[in-house]
Amino acid sequence: MASSEEDGTVEEKENNNKKRTKSALVTAWLTFYNIAMTAGWLVLAITMMRFYIQRGTHKGLYRSIARTLKFFQTFALVEVRLTFVGIVKTSVIVNGVQVCSRIFMVWFVTNSIRQIQNEESVILFLVVWTVMEISRYSYYTFSLLHHLPYFIKWARYNFFIVLYPLGVAGELLTIYAALPFVRRSGMYSMRLPNKYNVSFDYYYCLIIVMLSYIPLFPQLYLHMLRQRRRVLHGEVIVEKDE
Amino acid sequence: MKHYEVEILDAKTKDKLCFLDKVEPNATIGEIKSMFHKSHPQWYPARQSIRLDPKGKSLKDEDVLQHLPVGTTATFYFRDLGAQISWVTVFLTEYTGPLVIYLMFYFRVPFIYASKYDFTTSKHWVVHLACMCHSFHYVKRLLETLFVHRFSHGTMPLRNIFKNCTYYWGFAAWMAYYINHPLYTPPIYGEQQIRLALIIFLFCQIGNFSIHIALRNLRPPGSKTRKIPYPTKNPFTWIFLLVSCPNYTYELGSWLGFTLMTQCLPVAFFTLVGFVQMTVWAKGKHRSYLKEFRDYPPLRSPILPFIL
């Protein structure tokens, strides 16, 4: 019947409109999120540069940016939720591992172990993270705005080739430098006997974390290389027709 | 009698792998798999997935050729499931590990604890009790695997045995290390706590066993039929009124009892992880019960009465 048909199409249009408004809302929110994160990491970069130019040394630099760093790096946990729900199309595991390792470094290494905050390796990974995050978030922002300058795409998919290994080096050197302080203070550790009948040695935990870079880092690196090949050089489809 | 022709193509490449002529109309997929195995000896029937559509569901071994929606020349698609291992083998391996490993820690075999403790025994009687309970649990599981369970699938992928054994053996070692440690601290509330824990543990072990027997009796020997389980004369099965997978419910209860008995955080952790996994399985089973049976009792929850 004509009227029910009309009702059907009106309903469909309403549903489509709902879907469109929902995805428009999501896109708007995502754009805002990425702009905010780009801005945050830019602020970090500028603060770090100003500190170094004014003081001429990197000692005390970490302390000056510690709060901002913790805020923006922790906020990235939101992304894990987004990939899990499927709004952002990255592998949940890849993104999850990266965010976890960042949170671990910031909260459980540099934040807790004061003595290593002035190490050069800290500056190394801070610089690496800042450059990578600025290029990554600006890439997302411009993509969402459908106005992506090529150099941003180029930066996002080429900087990592050098920066990833440098960042890993910075992180590993920092953890290594922290080991003697952890051992001496016995922090985050629990010994027997206790009423929970469990023990935990943060020193050995850190060593295991360092060792885990061996299987994990190549996988993340290869993943990025594959993404790079796909995005910058287009997908290569091999047909078996010949 | 009209004979069928069967061609088997690779699901991915669409290459013709096998052509069988003069196939009986009442031949089963299982028989066709055996015939395919003859021409391709590396693909034993357990690792063959035969389907009507390259991306479709696997056909069952019991499906009969003439009852399938195919013409007299039937085209099937084949997918290699990878190396397979029998469920019985996996279960026996993954359960023997914890049994042996725990005993190694209990008897304080050298190189685990400081050498002055080698081959000594704990002075706490709860440690002996815990060893008996843990060992009993795994012996029960081994015997059930051999004599009670009726498996609907014969095999699983080979890589599962590594995954499963790492889980069971790893956790067993972790728990056993602390329970049998020379510096072990017995439960705070002492005898009362241990007694209550033992009662819970034994109750749930009997319950779990009762459910396994009830499920076995649902299925005639050698068959793969599925029926709705109902409470029997055994009071331990009355939980079927409220729960779809009471074997998991009782299993959770056993491990909660063991956690209470040993007051050991790794045991609590093991219980939690097991609970999460069993909940996932219970929800899946519950869903397939609902899909398969229209008259499935609505009062039942997957694993925890009224809750989960």
TrEMBL record, chain A:
GO molecular function: very-long-chain (3R)-3-hydroxyacyl-CoA dehydratase activity
EC numbers on record: 4.2.1.134
Any single GO CC term annotated in Swiss-Prot or TrEMBL for this entry: endoplasmic reticulum membrane
Primary localization class, coarse: endoplasmic reticulum
Superkingdom, taxonomy of origin: Eukaryota
Cellular localization per UniProt: Endoplasmic reticulum membrane; Membrane
Keyword Cell division tagged: no
Signal sequence extent: none
Topological type in the membrane: Multi-pass membrane protein
Associated pathway: Lipid metabolism; fatty acid biosynthesis
Keyword set includes DNA damage: no
BP GO terms, sorted: fatty acid elongation; sphingolipid biosynthetic process; very long-chain fatty acid biosynthetic process
PANTHER family recorded: VERY-LONG-CHAIN (3R)-3-HYDROXYACYL-COA DEHYDRATASE, VERY-LONG-CHAIN (3R)-3-HYDROXYACYL-COA DEHYDRATASE 1
Role of this protein: Catalyzes the third of the four reactions of the long-chain fatty acids elongation cycle. This endoplasmic reticulum-bound enzymatic process, allows the addition of two carbons to the chain of long- and very long-chain fatty acids/VLCFAs per cycle. This enzyme catalyzes the dehydration of the 3-hydroxyacyl-CoA intermediate into trans-2,3-enoyl-CoA, within each cycle of fatty acid elongation. Thereby, it participates to the production of VLCFAs of different chain lengths that are involved in multiple biological processes as precursors of membrane lipids and lipid mediators.
Family under the similarity heading: Belongs to the very long-chain fatty acids dehydratase HACD family.
Name of the protein in question: Very-long-chain (3R)-3-hydroxyacyl-CoA dehydratase
Species annotation: Nothobranchius furzeri (Turquoise killifish)
Lineage of the organism: Eukaryota, Metazoa, Chordata, Craniata, Vertebrata
TrEMBL record, chain B:
Organism for this UniProt entry: Nothobranchius furzeri (Turquoise killifish)
The enzyme's E.C. designation: 1.3.1.93
Identification of the protein by name: Very-long-chain enoyl-CoA reductase
Membrane topology according to the record: Multi-pass membrane protein
Pfam families tied to this protein: Steroid_dh, TECR_N
Any GO BP: very long-chain fatty acid biosynthetic process
Pathway(s) it belongs to: Lipid metabolism; sphingolipid metabolism; Lipid metabolism; fatty acid biosynthesis; Sphingolipid metabolism
Annotated TM spans: 85-107, 166-184, 196-215, 236-258, 264-282
Keywords for this protein: Acetylation, Endoplasmic reticulum, Fatty acid biosynthesis, Fatty acid metabolism, Lipid biosynthesis, Lipid metabolism, Membrane, NADP, Oxidoreductase, Phosphoprotein, Transmembrane, Transmembrane helix
Every TECR-like N-terminal domain range: 5-80
Keyword match Plastid: no
Places the protein is found: Endoplasmic reticulum membrane
GO cellular component term of the entry, any: endoplasmic reticulum membrane
